[in-house]
Amino acid sequence: MISAYIDRYEGNLAVLLLGDDMKKVNFPKEFLPADVGEGDYITIDIALDKEANEQAEAEALELLKD
Asked: What is the CATH number of the domain that holds 38?
């Protein structure tokens, strides 16, 4: 998991400071929980979606058959 600090909002974007190094990234505000705001800390969990990858591969292979 990645710790992130919500530094501020700029329009539809949230400026997040990630990790110990506080790397600045812009993140769509719509994907944040409704109850968070500037000055809050959140955690972000990024994981590989194997099922979606397998489904996309199967769909691509099916298209190649035609």
From this structure: 2.40.50
